[in-house]
Design goal:
Length: 331
């Protein structure tokens, strides 16, 4: 058995764009372009990048809310993407998702009791009484009282709604929870409460998190390792300390430089990224980041840099996709 809970190999997700009289495919959105990584049991893997980098598509493709175009996902030693019917249902119990907007992801016409007993209904687990008791226990785990059971989502604050979303995700005692920007829609003061709750649940239940966010400061708080994505590719991947202390990819460096420092005397040098992320319909040639990289050279426009061990490292402890990692041309 592999030491990894999940292994993703060359995962590709392209969305066809159809047009013309015959509604033929005229273009493709290249949302994921061959992403490979491994996830250890019990870790939190942070996945960061601007919107449009493919991180949410990755989460939804992994949990099979979206079909993949090609590639492999091995989960607990089995081919997760090939599973069908009952096997897929059983595997899905082990992999759950928390969504960005708790209001949109909860059915506003259902009471909390309906919302929290639904996973057991779908999977045919327990009697009605047991389902209600388990739902109350899940509420307690996320810090809400059982009085919440009869209420509707609109009667709660954003932070409380996200707690309900978390209670639903952990109801079936999954192994992996894919968290798609779970605190982005919350006030800063509530964000840390929800993240601390998630850390407590991880310890108690041995959960593995794939924590998707656009904000590196948020990811720093919670992650063991961090994967930085740009235009459907991984550009840097290492442990959380290294990514903050010695980022090697110019894109990661720009993201890190944008983290606010709560000290007016040490504001650091912010790297401003010029322009928007290019369209995933027409990917730039060579290094996809070259249109915004202040270190770009001719080679960058022509050759795509592979994701490989950073200079001076081995064994995939620090991967980076840049021709000049560790030795960036002066600007
Ligand atoms: Fe910048 Fe070139 Fe490195 Fe791409 S390969 S990140 S364009 S220096």
């Amino acid at each position: 058995m592999s030491e990894y809970l999940m292994e993703v190999k060359n995962l590709v997700k392209h969305y066809p764009i159809n047009g013309g009289v015959m509604m033929r495919e005229v273009a493709r959105v290249h949302a994921l372009n061959g992403v490979s990584f491994k996830v250890k049991a019990g870790e939190t893997l942070g996945i960061v990048g601007e919107s449009g980098c493919g991180k949410s598509t990755l989460g939804k493709t992994l949990i099979r809310l979206h079909d993949h175009t090609s590639g492999e996902v091995t989960f607990q030693g089995e081919d997760f993407l090939a599973k069908k019917g009952k096997d897929l249902m059983a595997a899905r119990r082990e992999m759950q998702m928390i969504f960005q907007d708790p209001y949109e992801s909860l059915n506003t016409r259902h009471t909390v009791e309906n919302i929290l007993t639904e996973p057991y209904d779908i999977h045919g687990i327990g009697t009605k009484e047991e389902r209600i008791e388990w739902a109350k226990a899940a509420l307690k785990k996320v810090g809400l009282s059982e009085q919440a059971m009869e209420r509707f989502p609109h009667e709660f604050s954003g932070g409380q709604r996200q707690r309900i979303g978390i209670a639903r995700a952990i109801a079936l005692k999954p192994k992996v929870v894919i968290c798609d920007e779970p605190v982005s829609a919350l006030d800063v003061s509530v964000q840390s409460q929800v993240m601390n709750l998630m850390l407590d649940l991880q310890k108690e239940m041995g959960l593995t998190y794939l924590f998707i966010a656009h904000d590196l400061a948020v990811v720093k708080h919670i992650s063991d390792r961090v994967m930085v994505m740009y235009l459907g590719n991984i550009v840097e991947f290492t442990d959380a300390n290294s990514i903050y202390e010695k980022p090697l990819h110019p894109y990661t460096q720009a993201l890190i430089s944008a983290i606010p420092i709560p000290d007016p005397e040490h504001q650091g040098n912010r790297i401003i990224l010029e322009g928007d992320i290019p369209s995933p319909i027409n990917l730039p040639s060579g290094c996809a980041f070259h249109t915004r990289c202040r270190h770009a050279q001719d080679k960058c426009r022509m050759e795509r840099p592979p994701l490989q061990d950073a200079p001076g490292t081995s064994g995939e402890t620090h991967l980076v996709a840049c021709h000049f990692a560790g030795n960036l041309p002066k600007v």
